[in-house]
Every structure is written in C-alpha cells, then in structure tokens.
Amino acid sequence: MPLNFVNKKPETSGERDDSKERELREAVFEPLRDFFRFKHGKKPFIPGVSPVPVSGRVFDETDMTTLADACMDFWLTAGRFAQEFERRLAKRVGGSHAVLANSGSSANLLAVSALTSDTLGDKRLKPGDEVITLAASFPTTVNPIVQNRLVPVFVDIRLPTYGIDVEMLEQAVSDKTKALIVAHTLGNPFDLDAVVRFAQRHGLWLIEDCCDALGSTYEGRPVGGFGDLATYSFYPAHHITMGEGGAVATSNARLKRLLESFRDWGRDCWCDPGKDNTCGKRFDWQLGDLPHGYDHKYTYSHLGYNLKVTDLQAAIGVSQLAKLDAFIETRKRNFQQLYTGLKRFEEFLILPEACPHADPAWFGLPITVREEAPFSREDLTHFLEADKIGTRLLFAGNITRQPSFKDVPYRVVGELADTDRVMRGSFWIGVYPGLSNEMIAYILERFEAFFAKRPVKI
Question: Is the pTM of this model over 0.85?
Fold first, then answer.
C-alpha cells in the first residue's frame, strides 16, 4: 500500500473513520495496479525497431499508487510527501537539510541566489563578483551566475574523466572570486580533495552540482556533502524522477532558511504552507521601513521566486527514492557491460575513467572520438541513431560558443583545449535502468557493425 507518513489533522470537527478511509483508498489502488500491468508492462525488444533511449523514466505500480494516494488528499502544494522526501533525501546525501524545488535548474538558481543575501555580510555574493565554473557544462549550471549579475570564470576539464582541471584553479582565482559551482560530469565525481582544499584556502563558497550524480560517492561518502550547497535534479532522465523536480541540500541551517526564502517569493516568514505564526510573533516584527507589527507572512527580505514543488510530484519522489539503490546497481552494471564491450575500439575511441577515489553512479557513458580517427563523431552518432540507438552531446559543449553567451561578460583561464575537444568529438550513450541486456547487446553489435566497415584493428 502507498506510503502514509504524516498524520494530518481531521478536516472536519467530527471524528474521521481512518479504517474506512484506508479501505476506500485501497479500492482505488487495485485497479491502478491492473492498469499499470496492462498499459506499462514490459514489452518485447525488437532490434532496429524498438528505440534504445539514452535515458527515461523507470517506474512501477507503487509509483502510480503513491501518486494516487497524494492525489486523493488533494493537497496541491507541498505537504506530507514533500516533508518526507526532504527528510529522506537529506539523510541519503549526508546533509542536515534538503529543500525541494520545481527543477534541478531551479535548484541551481536557488543555490547561487541564496549566497547573494545581505544577511551573509562580507561573505555574500555581490554584482561583479566572480564564480569559478566549467565551460563544458549544462547551461543552467552557469546561467544563475549571470542571472545574479555575477561573472563566470571558466576553467577547462580533463579527459578522460571530464572533471574540472584542478591545476587551473590557482590561475583562476582573483580578488573578486567568491565561489565555485562545479558539476560532477555525467555522475563522475571530480577531484573533491583538491577542490575543497582550494575553496577553504581562499575562503570560497562551494556548490556541488549533483544533478547527474545522485548516488555517486567519493572516498566512500555521497557527493553533495563536501561543499556548502549541493543541487539535484529529478527530471525523468535522472537517477530518480518526480517528473519536474529538484532539490538543494545543505548542512548549514542559515543557508537552509535562505533557500526557502528565495524559493517562496523571498518572504521572511518560515511557516510551512497552511501554517501560521510558527515564530510566535507574527504581528510583532519590525523589518525594513514597514510599520511595527506588519504581518510577517507578507514581509519580504529577498527578491525571490516561486519555485515550489507540488505534493503530487513529491509523492512520486518518495516512492522512487526507495528504488535508488537498485537503480544505481543497474546503472553500474550497464556501464560496465558497455565499457567492456567497447574497449576493443580504443584505438579510435577515448573511453571514460572514474576519478581517483570516486565510485560513480554513472548518468551516461561518455565517448570521445580521437582526433586521428578516420571518421567523425557525426559519422558514428548518425550511424547509431539510424539504428534507433539514442546519443547525446555533452550538453553545451563549450558554453562560451553558444548563441546565448554572445553578450555575456565572462573570464576564461587558459585555452579550454579539452572543452573544445569535447565540443567537437564527444557524445554519450545511455546506461539507465530501462536498458535490458538485449538492448546492451544490440548497442555493442551496432558498434561492431560500424567498425567492420572501417580500417580499425579489432
């Protein structure tokens, strides 16, 4: 039966028959289970006909019935499932707090915006301050820097890990540098020892973008627990899904308050939805130039947003989070099968390596076509796509070359040589749990077919 976590107060003055309610809920769930088996049951894989996606949602009847459980509450904003998900996610990633948002992109926006609060004093990020990041990145890792009138400072990555080139960090820092936001590319943790030491040495905020890396570990610890803030995405492509959704995790109670303020319109009040006067002085504050006693629920200390998630989404997340370990195990197994099968083509393909001390929960398997290969990336990806095997480029490639960055002020350290190399020659294929052994075998068979037509030593 779907999960029932937080006891709600009766909605009427009379006593509610909880056993009758459970009976009625269960009467809804059983037909849903039948519907799931009919509509979404496993279908046969037909090579060359059935698509082999790079990613996708993997769900079962429990996800559907848990969603129905939340739907029957008709509590359409954040509620009992959101609270439970935040608690469980924080525990999972090794933080004290998790703050849900409506996407991983919003989570990045919240993480950067929270650090601009004037309540942080000299540590706050101010317009013109610099934030070190990667040019080989997903756009919404970088965009919040620009959206907060900060200046991105781009450093290179290094193949074959696709992680930040830590040798460039000291060259990147200036008297304007205040923070770093760095992604664990495709789930492969970057050199956290070096980055954390650098951040501590220079007194910089560190945001770990873990949107592709839920479940990855570094020196046995979950990524996301090394910096000040960590962001996660629950889009259908990611390790678990709630459709659209994301979160920021932190062990800093002050930052948690700021995240909630920027997420919830910028308000100063910290009451949960449907709650009043948690602080005990709702009509006894004096803030800004407002009159004494101005309602705390309508007092705004930041220029915020509305980036909240619904309880319907959170319900799916709670159900999915229970499957995370199984999903991670399958991703690792799929990655290893593909990696082993592709090693015979290393003469012309650069295969990925995990960073030292890292155990990635791979989001995808990145491949870079060597510059001396007698074929291009496009030759290979077009061949695979024609056979229904999905491929993706490494996000924005070199983001400084994207149309959106035409008029954006930024600073570049070095030549971004590997970033440009990735832009020209890299792509990735899926390892997600929806891939069957038959699909994995088919992917490897089509790689063999591609190389059989070319002068490659195999």
Answer: yes
